[in-house]
Amino acid sequence: MASLSPMQGALGHRHAAHLLRRTSYRFTKTKVDEMAGQTAGQAVASLLQLYPLVHDQPIYDQNEASGSASPGTWCLPPGSLPPTEDFKLRPWLASWWLHEALNDPGIGHRMTFFLHQFNSVAITAFLTSHYFDYLMLLRWGALGNFKKFVTKMVVDNAMLKYLNNTDNVKANPNTNFAREFFELFTIGKGLQIGPGDYTNYTEDDINEAARLLTGFRVKGPRNTLDPETNIPRGGTNIDQHDTDPKTFSDKFQGTVIQGGTDDAGMWAELDAFVNMTFAQPETAKNFCRRLYRFFVSRHITPEIESDIIAPLADTFIAAGFEIKPVLEQLLQSQHFFDADDSDNKDEIMGGIIKSPLELSLQSIAFFDLPTPTPDSDLEAYFQFFGRGIYGRLFNEANLPLFSPPDVAGYPAYFQKPDFYRQYFNASTIVGRYKFPTMLLSGKMTIGASPDEPLGAKFDVAAWVKNSGTISDPGDPYVLVQDLLEYLLPEETDTDRFNYFYNIVFLDQLPPADWTYEWQNYLSTGDDTEVKIPLGRLINAIMYSAEYQLM
Questions:
Q1: Average model confidence (pLDDT) for the chain?
Q2: Interatomic CA distance for residues 492 and 514, integer angstroms
Q3: Domain boundaries, the chain
Q4: Are 211 and 247 in contact (CB under 8 A)?
């Protein structure tokens, strides 16, 4: 029986590593060791926080064409005018977000990405500064009230452009946003049960919602701020709003929402519409299913539906649609840690294929790669994050970050039955498998100009020597054991361990050979003979099927 009962006692290393892999892009030995001695409640509490940003907005090179870096910002204060050639700013915005995600010790950026997948907008929808506002709204809602978040998303400038609601007028209602509001952002469609009739709403409901949403407009100058979030948003135009009553079907208990006759009335209509949608139990269940698939497993059986999804939805409703209580209940549960049945190695842990985000950022964090910052080296920072990770790796590995190919988001999170298996197939595997070489060589390796510098390089010998991750680097058995313990989601059996130890690392040579070479490296500083087997080992671990899982 699947159980939401909390885990008891200290987590231990295996459960702590599982929790951190699933919740944060910053996977480090230090954090795993810290959480291993904590209870599930203590560990989850340390993760469910919005930690301060390193930089409050993107930084870009104002003189990119001149060859002399000149740092500049363009998003804050909100009324700032965007620079020319706005499309060039997109990779700088992505670089900023990735750098912040890498340095976020909590769940904030992973939940931001969850909400982005749930309420998708492409970066090409509007100016890049408006997309920054969209990302900041996602961050605001990440651990907040989902009902409030959805209401504010209605008038987000980027969303208004992306789904054409800024063109929604009373004389010619546009149903694009209204349809996705129901189908993707809140209640979900359910099965079709008749012409224009779905489980949870009808085509007539979409038409009525479109009428209600007429008159909401973008505010391009970004000088209209939401009074609660202080984030720029769109506004209202009562002249283009349908002021007649809107009548919904029996799916919504025949609710009638009176038309507003002024700007305040439009906002009151919107609140009534959102209240009506969230009054349906299926809205909470749909949210919890999406959350479950994102953090736990793609498999939702009748047992999971009754024992996990339904109680989570009850928690969600009782908490007034606050997200944090649902996460607390799920992430502390015996079910999340695969401890609610007799076989604790068959379902959850190691059961999700890492997206390119987890694969790249968690690797970079664990190996403590000395990545450049916009303060230390602006060009190298952009080369690494903008051109390397965002431009090369993600595109080859089937994650066009912030450019979802579908209004529903990235197929790996919604397309049945494969879901995240789409991140590991014939068309995406090459990018994933070239990533270790990128780090170890300090070169792009993927796509055109593979010898182009990456902007950072993993010095594996120095890391093994100085990081403290390996308890005894001179002992090859301990070295391999320590790495596998942290880098793979499950303990390896004897045959698998011997593959990494004897075949890959020692190359079937005596263990004493490694100890000799390591001592020679320590005394002379010459890493020639130690970086070769270390490189083989890191490559083999990161190539392994187990490393692709979390």
A1: 95
A2: 22
A3: 12-51+282-331, 107-279, 470-550
A4: no
